[in-house]
Design goal:
Layout: H1 7-26, H2 32-38, E1 42-51, H3 69-75, E2 85-95, E3 101-104, H4 106-109, E4 114-119, E5 128-129, E6 131-136, E7 141-145, E8 168-173, E9 181-192, E10 202-205, E11 217-220, E12 225-232, E13 240-244, H5 245-258, E14 264-265, E15 268-271, H6 275-281, E16 289-294, H7 299-303, E17 310-314, E18 317-318, H8 322-330, E19 337-344, E20 347-354, E21 356-357, E22 369-371, E23 376-380, H9 383-388, E24 397-402, E25 418-422, E26 425-426, H10 430-438, E27 444-451, E28 454-461
Antiparallel strand pairs: 1-2, 1-4, 2-3, 3-7, 4-5, 6-7, 8-9, 8-11, 9-10, 10-13, 11-12, 12-13, 14-21, 15-16, 16-17, 17-18, 17-19, 19-20, 22-23, 23-24, 24-25, 25-26, 25-27, 27-28
């Protein structure tokens, strides 16, 4: 005992400390009831898919190998076929209706041959087999369904738009196979763009998120889901990202009704405004989305939108930037009529546009398909454009948009360039580009690019997979 302090003084100090601790504890929320109620609707997901068994030279597409090449090397004892094996993966999901609909991430179930879900308190029970009802790669969402005899507990979506930075949140998931792990934190930020796709608008939280948490719910203190945990920064701690519930609700409803997602389409290429451009156009500050090009015959052209216009609002809601416009238009169903507030020649104008469908049908050019790994949006050349550019053959993808801060933005590529080949494979449809990126085995994609009458090559590195 320190000199100068009597026993009574020590007891008084201890009492004050205990009182302070209790006061601090009283200010923290009680998560126990929330965990007991919400945890029943969270499921662990296990997937299996067959991998291997491919041709002897997986770094090269089979149609690029000379006839008999693979068989010749197999006879010499090299380039053997790889044996197929089952690859397992873990994730999380949550039930959204008593009849067994489950929400998770697309990357959790993508390519899986079998998906099984297990419930809280079932221990090592194999659980139930789930059917994949539909997926949306661009927002990384998937809808599953299990056949359950009894009514299942479920979670309701909350309003992510009204969520406040600083409010308490709870995450429940299956990190590293440790099922129904609960972590708590706060809403750290909103509207984060992590360059994972064209509709990035993530919630950020410091609740502990780890591999296996993907697809799990981020729950507010009212017990409602305001986000779906999706991504982390591998080099950081306490930085996790979740898909906002208001975006997820729209996607899930479409998957439930149509098993696919349809998005509105303007038919323009857009870019950010800098301070100098805003000044030149007579705007008080950089805001809205600058129209860089208008596609012939598409909804924007039919409505009278022109290159150089600045789109400031959609149905009266202000547009912050080009990414905000893209998300806003995509939230409408094809065929919807929307009012665009436009700045042209120093004046406000209003145009009504009947939206097309972004993805089109059979890879048509009615929508730009995005390669989110590179930050590119492209569409197939029309015959008229190919003739005008004096490009022979039915191939070529025009770059319609390059996302700021992306891999493509750091390269020599520009909006309007035409991608002719990727890793020496001709590009005729948007699907050709996606396939070339998936099959790139050396961590990079080499493009043959056409610009202003000349051809050149431009190589882009692929981001490392986590």
């Amino acid at each position: 005992m320190l000199k100068g302090f009597s026993r009574k003084a020590w007891l008084a100090a201890a009492f004050v400390c205990c009182f302070a601790v209790q006061a601090l504890a009283a200010g923290l929320p009680d998560f126990v009831p929330l965990v007991k109620n919400a945890g029943k609707a969270v499921v662990n997901i296990t997937t299996e898919k067959k991998v291997g068994g491919g041709h002897a030279f997986p770094g090269f597409p089979p149609d690029m190998l000379p006839p008999g090449f693979e068989r010749f090397f197999q006879q010499l004892g090299g380039g053997q076929q790889s044996r197929p094996r089952m690859q397992k993966a873990l994730g999380t999901g949550f039930i959204i209706s008593s009849d067994g609909y489950i929400v998770t991430n697309n990357h959790v179930v993508n390519g899986a041959d079998q998906v099984r879900v297990s419930f809280e308190g079932h221990g090592k029970d194999k659980g139930l087999t789930a059917r994949v009802i539909g997926t949306d790669e661009e927002t990384d969402l998937a809808l599953l369904k299990v056949d359950a005899k009894d009514g299942l507990p479920y979670l309701e979506f909350g309003d992510s738009d009204s969520a406040q930075v600083g409010e308490w949140l709870l995450a429940i998931g299956n990190p590293f196979g440790l099922g129904h792990t609960v972590t708590q934190g706060i809403l750290s930020a909103k509207g984060r763009d992590i360059q994972s796709g064209p509709y990035d608008n993530f919630l950020q939280t410091d609740a502990s998120i780890n591999p296996g948490n993907s697809g799990g719910p981020l729950i507010n203190m009212e017990g409602r889901v305001i986000g779906i945990n999706t991504a982390i920064i591998a080099s950081g701690q306490g930085i996790g990202f979740a898909i906002p519930s208001n975006m997820a609700k729209r996607i899930v409803n479409q998957l439930k009704q149509n098993k696919k997602v349809s998005r509105g389409w303007l038919g323009v290429s857009i870019q950010e405004l800098d301070a100098n451009t805003a000044k030149a156009l007579g705007l008080d500050k950089p805001r809205g989305a600058l129209v860089g090009d208008v596609m012939p015959g598409e909804p924007a052209e039919k409505a009278g939108i022109e290159a150089g216009d600045v789109i400031l609002s959609v149905d009266g809601r202000p547009v912050a930037d080009s990414a905000d416009l893209l998300r806003s238009v995509a939230s409408y169903a094809p065929g919807s009529d929307i009012r665009l507030g436009v700045w042209r020649d120093g004046k406000d104008k209003t145009f009504t546009v009947r939206l097309g469908e972004r993805n089109g049908k059979n890879g048509s050019s009615s929508g730009a398909q995005t390669a989110p790994q590179l930050g590119l949006s492209v569409r197939a050349l029309t015959p008229g454009e190919a003739s005008q550019l004096r490009l022979s053959g039915n191939k070529g993808l025009r770059i319609m948009e390059i996302q700021p801060g992306s891999v493509a933005a750091e390269s020599d590529l520009r909006v309007g360039d035409v991608l002719m080949m990727a890793n020496r494979i001709p590009l005729r449809t948007e699907q050709d580009l996606n396939a070339a990126i998936r099959n790139a085995s050396r961590g990079a994609v080499m493009f043959q690019v056409f610009r202003q009458g000349r051809m050149f090559f431009c190589t882009l590195p692929l981001p490392e997979k986590k």
